[in-house]
Amino acid sequence: MWFELLIFIIGLAFGYFSSGKEDKMDLLKKGLLIGIVLAIIFGIIALLIGGLLIGLVGALGVFIQVVILVIIFIIGVFIGDFLEEKIKK
């Protein structure tokens, strides 16, 4: 819960302090790419430690968590962009 709130606040700050509108689709694509890379890395580690089933479940869990965090970050960016537009006028 606290980590998700921190990610939201970081997204809010990123959207507010970055000049202009942010490309949310590009942020989502980069986040998905990072999620895939992390899922592969941690999946291989879990595969070596615990076996095939644990490796697959671990990789899937890491990917889903990264995607959720990216979506929370993008929501923060949306709100930060909105506040930047309204406050800095």
What does this structure look like?
The protein has 89 residues and is an all-alpha fold. 89% of the residues lie in helices and 0% in strands. The radius of gyration is 16 Å and the shape is elongated. The model has no long low-confidence stretch (mean pLDDT 87).
Task: Give a brief description.
With 89 residues, this protein is mainly α. The protein is 89% helix and 0% strand.
Low-confidence stretches: none
Radius of gyration: 16 Å
Separation of termini?
A: 34 Å
Assign the structural class, choosing from mainly alpha, mainly beta, alpha/beta, alpha+beta, or little secondary structure: mainly alpha
Could you give a short account of the major beta sheet? none
Query: Total number of β-strand segments?
Result: 0
How many alpha or pi helices?
Answer: 3
What integer is the average pLDDT?
Answer: 87
Order of helices and strands: HHH
Form type: elongated
Helical amount: over 70%
Tell me the fraction of residues in β-strands, as a range.
under 5%
